[in-house]
Write a structure and sequence with these properties.
disordered N terminus, five-stranded mixed β-sheet, alpha/beta, 19 strands, 9 helices, 339 residues
Length: 339
C-alpha cells in the first residue's frame, strides 16, 4: 500500500536565496589616518587616543574567527603599513598590539585618494564581503581630484566586489568637507557621525542587507492579497535591530499597491501586505504566463525617526527591488513511501 506522506509546494520562481549567493567570509579594513592633525597638531582636535581605543573595541567585538582584519595606517602615500590577520583571539591580540605601539612623528599632508585606491585594487576581492571603515579628521589635500574620481566610481566598484564603505566623521572638519557632500549621492558608502564625541557609535554600526534585492516573487494564483515575509541579512552588529521601522512603497503601477511602515522582528524579517488593484481573475487573464512581470518597483527606506536614538547607527544598504508577478501554477513534488 502506498501512502502519500508529504506534498511539497515548490514555486517555479521562488525567492532567490540571496543569502546563499552572499555566503562569503567577511573582511573588515580600517583605513586609519595617522597624520599629526589627529594628535592635535596646529590647533586640530587631539582625537588620536580615542580613535585607537574605538578601533581596539571594534576589533574585539568581532566574534567570527573567519573574519579577516586589515589595518592600514596612512599619511600622504598609499600606506604607511599594511597589517593583516584573522579574527582569532591571538590574531586580534597581535593586531591590537601593533595599533597601540604605532607612533608616527612625521608631519605630512593628508592623502585619502591613494590609500582608498590601494584598498580597492589590492585589498578588496570578489570572494569576500568587504567592509571598509575610513577614519580621518579632514579632507584630501594631496590629490582631491583623484579622490572624487574614485568616489564617482564607487557604486560600480562596490557592486562588483561586494564592498561597503563607512566614512567615520570624527570632527566637524570631516563632517563639513567635500567627501561628506559627495557621499550623499553614492551607494554602499554611509557616514557615521561621531562628531559629538560618542566614538562608541563606531562599534555599534548595524548593517542590514535585504535577502530580496534580486526581486520579490508573488504568485498571483496562490498569494493573492496574502502577506509576504521578507528576510534581512546582518553583516555587522551583535544584535538584530528589533523594532527598526522601514517604509515600503510601490511606485505607481496598474497591478499592486504597497504603502506601509513595518518593523524588523526578532528573526530579522518583516511582513508586508500587498493590495492588488485588479481581481484575481483579471490578473490571471491579463498577466503573461511564460515569464514573470518584473517592471514594478518597490522602494523601501528607514523612517525619519530611525535617524536618531537607539537605531542611529543602523544602516539599510539596499533601497529598492522589483516585484515579480508570476501567473502560473506552482509545481508540486510528491513523495511516496512504499509500505
Amino acid at each position: 500500500m502506498k501512502r502519500i506522506l508529504l506534498i511539497l509546494s515548490v514555486c517555479l520562481l521562488s525567492v532567490v536565496c540571496y543569502a546563499q549567493g552572499r555566503a562569503k567570509d567577511i573582511r573588515q579594513t580600517y583605513l586609519w589616518d595617522v597624520t599629526l592633525s589627529m594628535k592635535g597638531y596646529n590647533g586640530a582636535p587631539n582625537i588620536y587616543d580615542k580613535v585607537v581605543d574605538v578601533m581596539i573595541r571594534d576589533i574585539n567585538s568581532i566574534t567570527n574567527e573567519r573574519t579577516e582584519i586589515v589595518v592600514i595606517p596612512f599619511q600622504n602615500t598609499a600606506y604607511c603599513d599594511v597589517w593583516r590577520t584573522m579574527a582569532t583571539p591571538e590574531g586580534k591580540r597581535q593586531m591590537i598590539k601593533k595599533i597601540k605601539e604605532y607612533d608616527n612623528k612625521s608631519f605630512t599632508n593628508t592623502n585619502i585618494s591613494a590609500p582608498l585606491e590601494n584598498v580597492v585594487n589590492n585589498i578588496f576581492t570578489a570572494d569576500k564581503i568587504d567592509i571598509l571603515k575610513l577614519m580621518t579628521d579632514g579632507n584630501d589635500n594631496v590629490n582631491p581630484v583623484r579622490l572624487h574620481e574614485l568616489l564617482d566610481q564607487w557604486c560600480a566598484i562596490a557592486k562588483a566586489k561586494d564592498a561597503y564603505g563607512y566614512y567615520i566623521l570624527l570632527t566637524s572638519a570631516a563632517k563639513d568637507g567635500d567627501i561628506s557632500l559627495q557621499l550623499r549621492g553614492i551607494c554602499n558608502f554611509e557616514e557615521v557621525d561621531v562628531t559629538d564625541g560618542n566614538y562608541t557609535g563606531i562599534t555599534e554600526i548595524v548593517q542590514e542587507t535585504s535577502a530580496f534585492a534580486e526581486g520579490i516573487p508573488f504568485n498571483i494564483r496562490d498569494e493573492y492579497n496574502k502577506p509576504k515575509r521578507l528576510e534581512f541579512i546582518q553583516y555587522m552588529g551583535s544584535e538584530v535591530p528589533v523594532g527598526f521601522k522601514i517604509r515600503f512603497k510601490t511606485r505607481p503601477n496598474a497591478y499592486v499597491e504597497i504603502d506601509e511602515v513595518v518593523a524588523i522582528r526578532q528573526d530579522n524579517s518583516v511582513e508586508i501586505h500587498p493590495h492588488f488593484l485588479m481581481s484575481q481573475d483579471s490578473l490571471m487573464s491579463t498577466l503573461p504566463t511564460d515569464y514573470p512581470l518584473n517592471d514594478i518597483v518597490l522602494d523601501y527606506e528607514p523612517t525619519e525617526e530611525m535617524q536618531t536614538g537607539k537605531f542611529a547607527f543602523t544602516r539599510l544598504v539596499d533601497d529598492h527591488c522589483q516585484l515579480l508577478l508570476i501567473n502560473k501554477p506552482e509545481k508540486t513534488v510528491r513523495i511516496y513511501v512504499k509500505q
